[in-house]
Amino acid sequence: MMVVMQEGATEEQIAHVVTRIEEVGASAHVSHGERVTIIGAIGDREELTALPIEACPGVARVVAILKPYKLVSREFHPTDSVIDVRGRKVGGGSFALIAGPCSVETPDQIVAAARAVSAAGASMMRGGAFKPRTSPYAFQGLGLDGLKLLAAARDETGLPIVTEVMDPRDLDIVHEYADVIQVGARNMQNFQLLADLGKVGKPVLLKRGPSATIEELLMAAEYIVKEGNRDVILCERGIRTFETATRNTLDISAVPVIQLASHLPVIVDPSHSAGRLDLVLPLSLAAVAAGADGVIVETHPNPEHALCDGPQSLPTEAFAEYADRVRDLVLWSGKTLS
Ligand code: PEP
Ligand code: MN
What we know:
By secondary structure, this protein is an alpha/beta fold. It has helices spanning 11-23, 45-50, 107-119, 144-157, 171-177, 191-197, 214-226, 254-261, 270-274, 277-290, 319-332; strands at 2-5, 27-32, 37-42, 59-63, 83-85, 88-90, 94-100, 124-126, 161-164, 180-183, 204-207, 232-236, 266-268, 294-300, 314-315, 336-337. Strands 7, 8, 9, 10, 11, 12, 13, 14, 15 and 16 form a 10-stranded parallel sheet that branches. Strands 2-3-1-4 form a 4-stranded antiparallel sheet, with helices on one face. It has a two-stranded antiparallel ribbon with strand order 5-6. α6 packs across α7 (214-226). The protein is elongated and about 65 Å long. Bound molecules: phosphoenolpyruvate (PEP) and manganese (II) ion.
């Protein structure tokens, strides 16, 4: 249930509604908009509908939310959420270009990648220290050493770092180094991890599972926001279909579908969608045209020798030209590159 307060409702009136909601054992989530405040009430439907909230002073109307997700819904928060990562904004007209290698491999590799993405004007740097690999025999990432290399890259370039956590037991250490904590596609429904991320004070980049519906993605985001962390960026990274020409099928319609349903920013990962270098630019441009709030793309100084995802990684020497093409379309579409 959602309580829309009148314009100019006082803090006292808002607090009173919160108290009434909490009295029946439900939780109240307050969202201050530019003009009106909305209070999301989550709890037992019967108890909530029996509450005479409309009669409380300052209440404009009470609306039932029929969707299974509530806090991430547009009804709850009509304007776009803007996530601020060390001053780089994502959403609400700010576009984030996030780039870097699939995994952190060596000091030289990460420094070369960081310099290239920074010089090309990227907004943030990506790189995996804990890698989800299909094969247990494949390179699993450098772990803590990888996080330290990412921190050194941040010190040199000033770029915020996006890196993945796979296991709730690693959350403290990843939290210490990351600016944005990524939840990989395979972990989208690791509910314990999501709930734990809801309690940290850092933005989360939540990737859509390869077989997850958009509703399941939004429910996964709801797990995080419900615990108090509102800074969630959603990522469409391709889904599994019958098509074999690409590694996954980029569901470009997910971008506007999610934006209609939710206030959270949505970015696109053209690298894991395509699995092919030659499709990274066209899919990135498609993402911008569809209204995405950013892209996260893999680039490597030496893709031929990459320990992970070389075939889909842009060589860093080609990254500046790629970034220019993306930037042109971002600006043309009326957004700013953060
Ligand atoms: C990644 O970003 O490196 C990654 C493994 O992506 P995904 O979880 O989307 O497969
Ligand atoms: Mn990868």
